């Protein structure tokens, strides 16, 4: 009987209690402490699973999607030296803009080339360079155009 409290003592105890001070009535976003721990634990578990998935599938170093590519043969490049513009000559490794423009200017001034070997008449093109480019060049001989041609 000594441990029993009277209703007036209970009221005074309840009046002095601040909401949220008691562990049983503490609220976190409208949840009790126990509920908040469960939600936090579930969120932590989901975060761990998501991180594990990225590690398992190799985000660091390997893509998530593996795309197979076929090794094709290079497209054979053939440039007709009598019809190519200077930009087409730039596709050849070792020919810059200046030399490409020189080839076209020579063709315009002196007429079409009769063979790939005729490229030696262009300043800056030697026989070694022509031999290096020979597999990529073709020459369709064309008659020299005259001023009277329409």
UniProtKB/TrEMBL annotation:
Keyword annotations: DNA-binding, Membrane, Transmembrane, Transmembrane helix
GO biological processes: DNA repair; protein secretion by the type II secretion system
TM ranges: 36-56
| Recorded GO CC terms | type II protein secretion system complex
All copies of the Helix-hairpin-helix DNA-binding motif class domain together span 87-106, 117-136
Disordered as annotated region, ranges: 1-21
Protein name, entry field: Helix-hairpin-helix DNA-binding class 1
Originating organism: Planctopirus limnophila (strain ATCC 43296 / DSM 3776 / IFAM 1008 / Mu 290) (Planctomyces limnophilus)
